[in-house]
Structures are given as C-alpha cells and as structure tokens.
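Good morning,

Both structures are done.
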Amino acid sequence: MHFLEQLIGTQTGLVLAFLATAAVVVLSGIRLSIYGDALGDRIGLGSGLVGLVFLAGVTSLPELVVSLTSVIQCTDPAQGADLATGNMLGSNVFNLLILAFMALLFPCKFDPSKMENPHTASTIYGLIMLGVFAIAFSTANLGGMRVPLLGCSWPVLALPVAYGLFLRREHRQQCSEVQEAHLPSEQKLAHIPALHFYSVLGGLCALIVGGGIVLSILGSRMALPPEQGGFGLEASVIGTIFLAISTSLPELVISFASVRMGFLDMSVGNVLGSNMFNLLIIFVADVALRTNSLLRQASAKNWTSVGMILLLTLLAGLLLRTRNRAATFATATTMIVAYIVAMAFLM
C-alpha cells in the first residue's frame, strides 16, 4: 500500500496508474456490452432496442460511476462538480466522434443508405435533452428551484422524465420490428446457465465500479500542483479530456466491432443512446450531492463542451444522410478538427 501511494505521488506513476485502470474499465466495458445484449434476449426485450438501451446503458456505466464517485469522494465540492460535469459532457463529445472515426476507418462498411433506421428521432431526442441540460445549467444560480426530498433543481428533474418519454416512444415504434443483428458470442451467452451468466455479469459490473472509483481519485490527484505530484490542471479539463475519453473507450470499441460485422444500425444506436443516457448522470450526481447544487458549482468552461455537443450532433445528423464518399470524408474530418480546436481552447 505504501508503494502504491509513493507511485501515484509522482506524475509518471499517476499516468501509469491512470492508463492501467482505464484499460481495466475498457476491457470490462467491452465484455459487459456483450453480456448486456445477451441479457436483453434472456429477459425478452426486443432486439430493436439493443443499441439504444442495453449497449448504451452498459457502456455508459463507467461515466456514471466516475461522475457519482467524484461528487461523493472529493473533499472540494466545486472540484467534484467539475469532474462529474466535465466527464459527462466530454464523454458525449467523444462519443459523437466515434461516428466520424467509423466513417473514416471503415468506409466500405459505413453506408448510411443501407441502414434500416435513419436514427432521426434519436438525434432529435438527444438535442432536446441537451436543451434541457442547457436550461438547467443557465438557471443553476437561481434560488428556490430545488425539488423537495431529491434536492436537485426542477430543470434537472426534467432530464429523466424526458428520457423516459423518449424511450417509451422509441419502444413503441420498434417493438414490432424484428432485428437479427446479434454477434455469435451474444447468441451463445443467451443460453448458458443463469448462475454462470449473472455471476460474470455481476463481476464485470464490480470491476467497472471499482475502476470508476479509482479513476475519479486519480483525476482528483491530477488537479494537484506539480510539486505535489499532480499536473495543476483544472478539474473541468481533467473531466472533459482524460476521464471522458477513458470512460468512452468501451463505446468506441463495441461500436467498431459492430460496424465491422455490418451492424451499422447497432453502432449508431449505441452512440446516440449513450449520449442520452449520459445526460441522466447529471440528475443522479445532483441528487447524490444533496446539500449543494451540482451545476451551480460547475465551471463555466463546460459551456464549450455544450456547444461542441450541439455542433457535433448536427454534423453527425448530416453524416448519417450523406450518400457519397467525398461528403462523408469532409463531414467526418470537420468533426475531428472541431474537436481538436475545442480541446486546445479548454487547455
């Protein structure tokens, strides 16, 4: 234990510990994504919601754990709020980049014209939820808006309400559709003994929860001054870049795996569904903070990420409607360049 404390007390040790923990979260998230889809088969959920619900939910578990742990564990409430908010927003920005990466790396597989679902509704739902978040963020300093018992603001409470309504409508539209887009490993997992299946599922969840706790602690240490072994970075920057990318890697890997096997609908649904699910993290973290308002303490720099999510969502909608390689390449490249410029501004 003393050795570990000495290791993460240096900048090099902090980076190595962060990378190792992120690797555990990524590998567990990938496996959990497959088990999550198989769970949908075991409990009889229509496969049309695989990408939007199960893959989105299980691959967003790292973001949930990291953000929740940040507000609970950090001794500085403002730093915890920045880590939690930056992690969620940064993850949504990076998730949208996954679509651009898929278009550039798998040009033969990325053919929106062959998708059964254009995902227009999911894109609009995501924009509406982002608008609700923007209202909550902009009114966070107003008094008298706290919900009794829950402790969150009324606009923040609108996030899970909107998500539930969107999910219900999406389910109604897709429940009669039949999709056979399942990986072979998912088909096998759906029939293994229940005790084995749920034991592995629980173990993977435990690894992600533990990894998320460690990532949030390491993220807090990164905010320390260089003489104390940190990097002196603002908590919002750490959450938006380091924590966000590391917790979004499961989405990236499972989306790549799906599109390589020809399941573009599932990949797109995973990305858009994850972004909607991630916005629920603000509600959970705000309730967990109890005595303080999460968004009231979050840095104004997070507005940069809000603007990036809006821009990248609009570009992603355009990307999913392109019908020629040149337009696809131009749109995907624009998304990546915009992300690099925005991250440089935050730094």
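Second structure follows.
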Amino acid sequence: MGYVAVQGGTDAIENSEKLSNYLRLKGKSLPLTVKQIQDQLRFLVDRVMGEGSLYSPFHAALAIKQSEGDPLEAAFYIRAYRSTLKRIVDTLPLNMQEQRITRRISSAFKDIPGGQILGPTQDYKQRMLDFSLVEEDEEAMHKALSDYEAELKPKPIGEKGFVKVVDILKSQGLVKEAARETEEAAADITKESVAFPADRSSSLQMLSRSETGGVLALAYSSMRGYGSIHPTIAELRVGHVPVRIPHPFRENETVTIGSIQVTEAEILAKFESCGQDEKPYFTLGYGCCFGCNEVKAISMAVLDRTMKEEKADAPAQDQEFVLMHTDGIESSGFCAHFKLPHYITFQSDLDRLRATQEKKSKKEVKTGENINDL
C-alpha cells in the first residue's frame, strides 16, 4: 500500500519523540532504573520476555522503561531486538523432571507426592490497595527483608525430584500417552512460515509467545461453554530448569550453560475413547512459558486441548483462529497501522461513495422514488 508524502513530516516526528521523552521525565521523581524494574516488577518482566520470545530479564526491563510500561510495545522492542541476534547453537530439549520447584500445586488431588508447595503467590491475598507502599523507602525495604529472614530462616529456593501427577495417572492407565514428535519433525516458527493445520510443536511455540490477554480471552470463552472441555489442573509448576547444549568437542556429551525460569501447566480434560472396544481415558492439555505467568500457562494448556477437537464448533477449537489472533505483536501492529496515512485508499472510498450517491440521486429524480426505499 502506498502512502501520500507529508511535507515537513520528519521534523514533526522528531519533535513528537522529544515531547514523549519530556513527558516521561517531567514528573520530578528520580529516574526509574532498569535494575529496579528487573528486581521489583518481575511479573511484567516475565510477561514481556515471553511475548517478546527472548529470555533476558535485563533487556525486558529496558524495553519496559523505553515503552513507558506498555507491555505490548515492550514485547515489540524485544521481538525486534531478538531478530538481530545471531543464533549460535540449538539447545537440547528441556528436561522438566530436573526443574527446581519454587511453586507446585494440583487442583486434582489434595495429597500429591512431595506435597503442595504454595511458594510465592498472591492468590490468597485480599485485592485491596496497600497504602503503606506509598511511604516505602530503603529503610522499610531492609526492615522487611531482615524481619522475614529472622522469622522464617528461608532455605535456598528450589527443590527437585518430584513425580508428576500426570505420570502417576498414566501409570494407572487413566491418561493416554501422547504421540511424541521426533526431533527432525519439530518445527521452528522463527525460521519457517507456519502452515495450517499446524503440528503441535508449531502450535505450542506460537502459544508460548502469544499475548497473555489474547490467550486468556479465548481460553475463557471455552471455560464459559463455547467449546467447553471443563479443565482440571493436574499440576502447575513454577521453577528453574537447566539449559543444555551438545558439547562442542566431545560426542555424546552435553554442557549446562545455565537455567531459566518457566511456568508449566498440565490440565486434565473430558475423557474419551478412540474405539468401541477401547477404555476411556482423560485427555491432556499442556502449556509452558518463560518466567512466572500462571494465567498464560493455564490458558495455553486449555487452548492446546480445545484445538485437538476434530470439529471446530467454537472459536477456541479452531486452530487457525486461535493461533493467528493471539500474537500480540502481529495484532497490535496491524491495529496501529491504521494510524498511518491512508489518504489514497480513503480518497478512493470517497470517490466511490460520492459517485454512488450521485447515481442514486439521479435515479430518484427520474423516478420520483424515495432514496430510502431503493
């Protein structure tokens, strides 16, 4: 689409950017540091990392500052920055059994091996404003930390070695093992265009970097009955999992290069059977995303299950509808492009409308009919 050139547009754009920066700083408070954002706005940082598809808390915090707290814009910055980075090596598949758990709950069973671990969560707090935060300063921060450490004597965060709830159900024949895709078949949506119907690896990749609100909206539609699957959370985990790569010089050896925090959700949905003689079993949905973003992981798992339906009777069951409408970068970019000049296309619409009105008016004068009756 071509746009009409605007005289003096460059100066106007530059001045607009200067004004935006001025409005960000004119409040007379101390500049917000990237380190503060990274340390104290962890949920926002994790969301931007996931939607930007780059695990880097520092760059996510920087993008949040640059975008003045707009998560969609920040994710856009991260996605753009990611495209400039050179891919050095492909990591090996993550082994979730090695995850160091900081939070682990199950809605399906009260007692699970290793127990329920609430970890850090605000699920059980009253949603009321805490005005004491208005006066929070460095002294208050140090006091809160020292009081917590003196009272609870916290241990190093993270435990591992728990048996998964889903694995227990599989061993009892209540959940059918999903067909595993080979490494050769696993897609890379950053290198190849996705064709529909998409394989599950492509689908999960697209969901993992989709916009949290978009995924939640479609998953919520299923929860309310539009393609309902009535999910139950078998297990929700938040923790750090090791990242490994093949050893560059030694065959059949790996190197651990660090760890990343992820949120993983597995849901149990309605049971079914493939044939008349086959026993019924629970079906599964799976979600996993960067950082701590439980709503997104659960919504992913719900949509992963809804898209397995053979017949799409609701939007949440239509794979193409779900995957093409939940990418925040794509959708916000298309929405924002309407702010750009559309002078030529709109002029064409005006010309056609005026011509149609003129034609209708002439016919009305000729026949004496009311234009509203045509």
